[in-house]
Here is the input.
Amino acid sequence: MLFKNLVEYSERIGKTSSRHGKIAIILGFLKKLSQRESEIGVNFISGKISQGKLSLASKGLVLLVKIRGSMERPPDLLAIDRALDLAGKAKGRKKVEVLGPLFRRLSAPEKKFLAALISGEVHQGAGEGLVKMAIAGCFGLLGAEIDQAYLQKPDLGSLFAYLLQHGKAGIHRLGISVFHPVKPMLAQITESIDDLANEYRDLSIEYKYDGVRVQVHRKQDRIRIFSRNLKDITIHFPEIADMVRTIPLNEFILDGEAIGVDNKGKPVPFQVLAKRTMRKKNIKKMMAQIPVVPKFFDILYFDKEDLTSKAYVERVRILNEVIIDRTYLVDWEKPRKKGDVSQFFRRSIQAGNEGIMAKLLDAPYRAGKRGKYWFKLKNVYTIDCVILAAEWGHGRREGLLSNLHLGVLDETKTKYLMVGKTFKGLTDEILVWFTEHLPALKVHEDAWTVYVRPHVVVEIAFNEVQKSPKYDSKFALRFARVKRIRKDKSAREINTILDLVKLGRSDD
Ligand code: AMP
Here is the structure.
């Protein structure tokens, strides 16, 4: 397909407002792609290039868009991809030189589109969801089928290419293979140890490390390490690759957490380790400053076999055969009697970890899913928040100000940002105190809520910080509960949003 045809499709998608209409156009486009250009075509129409980032300065792009040319020999998708490959390998200004002849062959709208593709700013509205539905349409797949396939092959370009090659029936053979990362399985948060200990007996409880998720793929001497978001992070962790290379086996995929350790071998907080993943330079120096140890807890593929449908207990058995040195395995145990879980939790916190994980021993590996198989129980944190508003309670709390809107200071300490609500942890005495004192601070009110001047400070316990579009802070506390009113503190002395950003994991 010529690039100019793709740009025409993109313009049509941009002009169509209905979801169905957009999907129909994308579907028409997909049907015109040959096997060879399938992956590139899907990437382009989704606003992506296969090379990821070209690191081309915007000045360079402006120059390219201004280039006048002959528009002769209009390039096809493969020619564009080849030129982007070359540009990716070139350094600095050379990138512009490499791309010059290509831009000369393009019309003005094509140049604009290619520049937007390179800078990741295509906004014609063919998001991942729509392209996925169009792919489903091409092969007559149900929504659930394409969703499941996408979890196993989380790249729409290669998923489409795979389906073109293998047809609809291929979806059932879409197993895991080395160097194609799958979305990692996730855990559900749980509030209390008792929930875990009572509900499930066939559990593995494990340290929950505060590190970086790593999915390590190996085939012969080639090793690649993928992050939770499936980015290739091999370059950042040479010591993990070295360690995995020593395993006298050939082909496998491991799942684990990379932790940074101090000179006594104690885990360092995630923010310290994050420095390792931020820089591509001076890796040797960083390795000496913040050494990293992998702690593997799962194996997804071994000996040409996809293990994800096997029970966790079986996968762990295989993992123990693959990794002999226990230093590189998660610390875990099977709770046998009452009190084991809470004791293990205390041990994990004392060892410098974030909490514990509990996993059902008979659970399969569910790529990309957060379900009732893995649970996380985190340490309790406390911060001081200010009350921004309170909602009138109902039932037993009728007539009492109950559900509190909580705020922290912004980074400049000039504004308050909302981070959640809670009606938990409130004793009758505290409820009465709020009902008596908050109305005096009223700024305005509606039928349910009294909004107040930020003045009353409360100490809040919580287990997790999550990104959330709901509040202006963009964060929300999970399982927030009131510990006490801090009459000794002023609203200027409370925590700032930065304290929460530190606790929130960046990749949630
Ligand atoms: P969260 O990021 O709070 O949703 O917790 C899930 C994350 O905890 C996983 O993605 C891993 O990066 C990390 N983790 C630490 N220890 C373990 C463990 N033993 N099993 C699974 N995940 C773990």
Observations:
- The pocket of adenosine monophosphate is lined by residues 184, 186-187, 206-209, 213, 228, 257, 297, 330, 357, 376, 505, 508 (CB under 6 Å).
